[in-house]
Write a structure and sequence with these properties.
- This protein has five helices and nine strands, in the order H-E-H-E-H-E-E-E-E-E-E-E-H-H.
- The chain is of the alpha+beta class.
- The chain has a single domain, classed as Beta Polymerase, domain 2, CATH 3.30.460.
- The strands form two sheets. Strands 1, 2, 3, 4, 5, 6 and 7 form a seven-stranded mixed β-sheet that branches. The protein has a two-stranded antiparallel sheet with strand order 8-9.
- The longest helix has 31 residues.
- It is globular.
- The termini are far apart.
Amino acid sequence: MESKLEKALKWIVNILKKHNVPFQIAGGFAAHIYGAKRSVNDIDLDIPEEKFKTILPDIEKYITFGPDRLKDEKWDLDLIVLNYEGQMIDISGAYKTKIYNEKNKTWESYPAQFETAQIKTIFEIEVYVMNPKDLMEYKKILNGEHQKIDIEAVKNYLVDFSQHHTTELNRFRHVR
């Protein structure tokens, strides 16, 4: 039986692909994909702001916020929040997002980097996931214990990934 996370991910990715909308999974779900053990609260997706209107007919009955500009103590971004059968989905604008840097006391522009997103297979569907280095950088700007947990998990993923590829490269060299 599909979990609500799986069901919601398949639903929203199908809509995005149907409309040829570039996207990447970000936030805690991306960290989870890279190995974070904490539970997934929502599905965070980045898409180009101009594509919001393209998907509205398919998602409008699930909208709980937006599409609108949200500015709070951490974020300044275009946002649509969905509740799809009990699973929250945050669809954020990809290019005009700003994050408040508590250390510098400044708003920092943080556009999505679709070209560096990683292709992963999750629940038997192909998705784009924020590059792990980009994910760590934006999580460093945010405060909170869960950010530190996510950063540590992504660091471990990168170390494991690097070690695996070094081993494979060495194996290849010995075969030749």
